[in-house]
């Protein structure tokens, strides 16, 4: 469904969908979710590749080895267009993932495509793809776009190693932020699957990856805000007349 929402020109041609502002919002959210899922998938694959224990310098090897020996600019420059002239998103994430030889390369390609979408993104889609405050955050499309410009003529594999080192620092920083003292045990609990000691990295379990899911409860609440669903007197969700019309019933 998200592929149709993002990439099908029929969405813009449909009389009902073309009039709903929420469609543009969902397009932005769904496109950004691809980048979020790629970061999660990349980190999960990196953690899974750790054979229990490894040197810090070896943690990035699975990703580095999966990428071609070209510059960042050459790699990104080989990607297909991301927007059509009428503002319809082109399936560059799907095309580039299909052209990738490994899952790790597909994750990196998806991230690069996400950063490329900033140029030419429709004005009504942009706030939902990346807000102004979000653009200042590490790992955002704007952040990655700036790094691509900085590394344009430098080796892609060196860039990958740089990104992985950043992810390691980030994981350590976030886990320490969530650390809590357990008075009953008399120790500090750090919620992480990856641990650091000197220059060694070791894990106690794998990370979950993939896209962030949307549960039914928040979805039907969102749909109720645009009069597509309604809660009846028995606290059951029902499709409204407008919702039935949108479904073609």
Short structural summary:
The chain has helices at residues 2-7, 10-13, 21-48, 61-66, 72-77, 92-99, 103-116, 126-129, 141-150, 156-177, 216-224, 241-247, and strands spanning 53-55, 180-182, 187-189, 194-197, 200-203, 229-231, 237-239. By secondary structure, the chain is mainly alpha-helical. It is globular and about 60 Å long.
Topology:
Layout: H1 2-7, H2 10-13, H3 21-48, E1 53-55, H4 61-66, H5 72-77, H6 92-99, H7 103-116, H8 126-129, H9 141-150, H10 156-177, E2 180-182, E3 187-189, E4 194-197, E5 200-203, H11 216-224, E6 229-231, E7 237-239, H12 241-247
Structure description:
The longest helix is centred in the N-terminal third of the chain and has 28 residues, at 21-48. Helix 3 packs antiparallel against helix 7, helix 6 (92-99) runs antiparallel to helix 7 and helix 7 packs across helix 9 (141-150). The chain has helices spanning 2-7, 10-13, 21-48, 61-66, 72-77, 92-99, 103-116, 126-129, 141-150, 156-177, 216-224, 241-247, and strands spanning 53-55, 180-182, 187-189, 194-197, 200-203, 229-231, 237-239. It is 50% helix and 9% strand. It has 249 residues and is mainly alpha-helical.
